[in-house]
Amino acid sequence: MVPLNLPNAELKLKKKANQIYVWDIFRKSDLLLTREEWVRQHLLHYLVNHLQYPVHFIASEFKIEVNKLTRRCDGVVFDKQGTPKMIIECKEPRVKIDEKVLHQVAQYNYALNVDYILLTNGLITVTVYLNRNENTLEYLEMIPDYHQICH
Description:
Blueprint: E1 13-16, E2 19-24, E3 29-32, H1 35-51, E4 58-66, E5 69-78, E6 84-90, H2 99-112, E7 116-120, E8 125-131, E9 136-140, H3 146-149
Parallel strand pairs: 6-7
Antiparallel strand pairs: 1-2, 2-3, 4-5, 5-6, 7-8, 8-9
């Protein structure tokens, strides 16, 4: 797999029928290790191991309904009251993080109404704070830790 601009994650990998699988600590199952899953696992492990996000407040592949269609957010972070605070969208490294990806997640946000959006392809990571007081998008230099997004 491609090296990422995220800290190395200690992933549990196994080979089955000539394919590599990764143990997902969030969904408690083995998943086929695609390029996108490689990015998702590294990002989610970074959030837990470096930014103090509790595992039990992160939902991976979270189902939502948008315009009567079922969609899946790569990740959603919740506060202790169960309120969604951040949507995470992961792409494989070859996919550009651009306005199209932000628009995709903005549609998800109609259902969840979060304050933060995190987009990554493992090489480029963009974190956006939706400042409702000033009705602006603020691009952050760093991913906030769990306590910052749940203030």
